[in-house]
Amino acid sequence: MLCLIKLDGIYKNCFKTLMLTLLTLCMLAGRGNAIKCFKCAVTIEKIYSYAKNATSFTPLCSKFDESDEYIVECPYSTMCLKTISTLYLQNNQQQTTATRGCAPQKDTKQVFNNGQWHQEHSVQEVYEEGCGQFTDNKISGPVKTHCYCRGNLCNASNHLHHVSLFATTLMTSLLIRFFVEFSEFKIYQRTFALKLKLS
């Protein structure tokens, strides 16, 4: 049932405001979980995990189809990465390859505590959203474009790194709307209370 508050002859729909607030809170809560990114490589990579006692394979980017096989969790990243490498060949030809994965933000330090050395991991915020180019070897090396983005699975393709900007804009709009409606509610409440006193 909709929550309708009658103030000075005007009905205010607080159900809409409540739903917008809950949506905003859900978006904020989701930011605390590990980000998920697409991961793929130029060649199949084998990675052995001692913790899981199993070998995992990184699938090929040349067969990338955004399926679950390509999704990984990134506990030590807050961003996803897509790297496009372009090698310029003779006769004005070029070869382009792409890789995807978690942005390398993990910082590991050796810490001495209680008479023992152990590793402490932290996440470093060292990248800005967007793309930048650099060349390994200025004479013959490939030109690499690194694109960093925030938001789950934002490294699918070139146009998707703007998804997080949309989410941020939506969240900001919802918050502004909530505060505007809340302010209007307070104004109507004061006006109604004042009319009650006068009558």
UniProtKB/TrEMBL annotation:
**Alphabetized Pfam families for the sequence:** QVR
Q: Name one GO cellular component term.
A: side of membrane
Q: Which UniProt keywords apply?
A: Glycoprotein, GPI-anchor, Lipoprotein, Membrane, Signal, Transmembrane, Transmembrane helix
Question: Where found, per UniProt?
Answer: Membrane
Q: GO BP, one example?
A: regulation of synaptic transmission, cholinergic
Q: How does it sit in the membrane?
A: Lipid-anchor; GPI-anchor
Against InterPro entries, the record matches this protein to: QVR-like, Sleep_regulator
Q: What are the boundaries of the signal sequence?
A: 1-34
Protein's name according to its UniProt entry? Protein sleepless
Organism source for this protein? Glossina pallidipes (Tsetse fly)
Identify the taxonomic lineage of the organism of origin.
Answer: Eukaryota, Metazoa, Ecdysozoa, Arthropoda, Hexapoda
